Amino acid sequence: MNLCHLIVSVDLVFINECPILQENSDFLLCRGEVEEKIFSPWLQSLELKGLKFVENKVPTSLTTDVDSGCISSIVCGDDVYEADAFVLAMGLSSLQSIVKNSNVGSQECPFLRSDREFRNLLHLSTVDVISVKLWFDKKIIIPKVANVCSGFDDSSGWAFFDLTSVYDDYCEESITIVEAEFYNASHLVLLSDDDIVYEASSHLIKCIQDFEGAIVIRYSIRRSPNSVINFLPGSYKYTLRGSTSFPNLFIAGDWIVNRHGSFSKEKAYVTGLEAGNRVVDYFDIGDFAKIIAVEGDEPHIETLRSLNRRANELKSQIPFSEFFLQ
């Protein structure tokens, strides 16, 4: 095969991440808008290398080649795109939609109706995320750049970041810019922008009293429904690996299973590199990306992991152990 065509189907949801090294953490934040600082220059560089982007196309199904057992094309409504290999770098809910569509009379991907590997995805659930960026009219001292919070209501967790200390463009500002992210936020998604701003401001006041009396002079809200997998006891066995039962179909995302040890956005990035390496291996063309291993666990964490593995081994010997949560 001299000329290989690869299709990568990607969901892009820009949620700002941060590059200040936290105490006891390797969590980094981007020193500006992720879309502006990272994604746009990266996409432009790929276009200069001949990569073609097809925007605003939603994958609805896949087709197979009966003779080879490989995926032959991806269908986006009325458009069909053929390729030699495919990477689905999409969120769980997007792939679930493809599986569901295949179960309502679609003849293009009947394999999804009977393939347990994909049907199992319907056992998994997702949660809504809301990202709120607030500009306050005065300078407020925030002790920590990144703050993870819980206990303010019964259903959602949230985090907030001091962008004034992180973004190069904001460091000299006499105001305060904060970004808050709310997870499992289905009760907030349908609220008006003003109500969401009020909720976010109220949460901030409970954490730092200096926000009391501060006026929001500008805001930006991004609603991302069904964008993050809801990891629950028993869900692990239903998730996909990076390779599938189709030799030319690969998966990337923060919700799949791999052995790297990363999570969240870092895991999405790492699984993307792994998918690229699988494509290189499949075509036997190109160079493998180098993936940096995570640091080893601290002794007490490794001890607990060993105990957990041993407990699982013992549990597997118990009759009817397959009915236990995994």
From TrEMBL:
Stretches assigned to the Amine oxidase domain: 48-279
Gene Ontology terms, MF aspect: flavin adenine dinucleotide binding; oxidoreductase activity
Pfam families reported for this sequence: Amino_oxidase
InterPro entries: Amino_oxidase (IPR002937), FAD/NAD-bd_sf (IPR036188), Zeta_carotene_desat/Oxidored (IPR050464)
SUPFAM superfamilies linked: FAD/NAD(P)-binding domain (SSF51905)
Top-level taxon of origin: Eukaryota
The name this protein goes by in its record: Phytoene dehydrogenase
Organism: Zea mays
